[in-house]
């Protein structure tokens, strides 16, 4: 990746900003970090998912 003297790649990406975002992401401190995991976990009915998976496995055996 070619860089010019101002800390940007030839396509204009700010290298320092990308490094900061990567560091935040790795530490779990990004602005949206954890947001989706919590949201989906709170809306997922585990028993329902297990039941549907079991039904799908049974149906798969019948369709073969």
Automatic annotation (TrEMBL):
Region of interest (Disordered), residue spans: 1-64
Record keywords: Repeat, Sporulation
Start-end of Low complexity biased regions: 20-35
Pfam families from the UniProt entry: SASP_gamma (PF04259)
Polar residues: compositionally biased ranges: 1-19, 55-64
Lineage top rank: taxon: Bacteria
Sequence similarity: Belongs to the gamma-type SASP family.
Protein known as: Small, acid-soluble spore protein gamma-type
Organism: Metabacillus niabensis
